[in-house]
Amino acid sequence: MMKNQTTYNRTARYLHWGMALCYTVMFATEIAWNMNDSLKFLMNPHRAIGILLLILTLFRVIWAITHAKQPPAKSLTAKLGHRVLYVLMLAVPIVGVVRQAGFAQGNQPLIDLGIA
């Protein structure tokens, strides 16, 4: 967002809403297959969307750094909240990839979530 603009540009909006849609699908597939074992086929789309989210998050971080012309958040709470969200957007998919890599090598997960 430029200093004289009151809205985010198109790329920022597409990233925001695209990622929101991906996270909604991620949560829905996780809940669905935990409620009904016959829906375990949703794991593959869940993984694919997770990888897409990781790529979008990396792009979003780069975009935020290179387009940092927006006015900074005024409160310390808002600044910390944004930073925590960016860390979580990176950490959650990375943990999923690492967990899947462990399964691929035949290792047992640290916590058995019953989805292997």
Automatic annotation (TrEMBL):
- Membrane-spanning residues: 12-33, 45-63, 84-103
Topology of this chain in the membrane = Multi-pass membrane protein
Q: Does the keyword RNA-binding apply?
A: no
Which GO cellular component does the record give, naming just one?
plasma membrane
What cofactor does its activity depend on?
heme b
Query: A GO molecular-function term, please?
Result: heme binding
Per UniProt, subcellular location reads as: Cell membrane
Pfam families, A to Z: Ni_hydr_CYTB
Does the UniProt entry include the keyword Kinase?
no
Question: What keyword terms does UniProt attach to this protein?
Answer: Cell membrane, Electron transport, Heme, Iron, Membrane, Metal-binding, Transmembrane, Transmembrane helix, Transport
Q: Which family does the record claim for this protein?
A: Belongs to the cytochrome b561 family.
Name recorded for this polypeptide: Cytochrome b
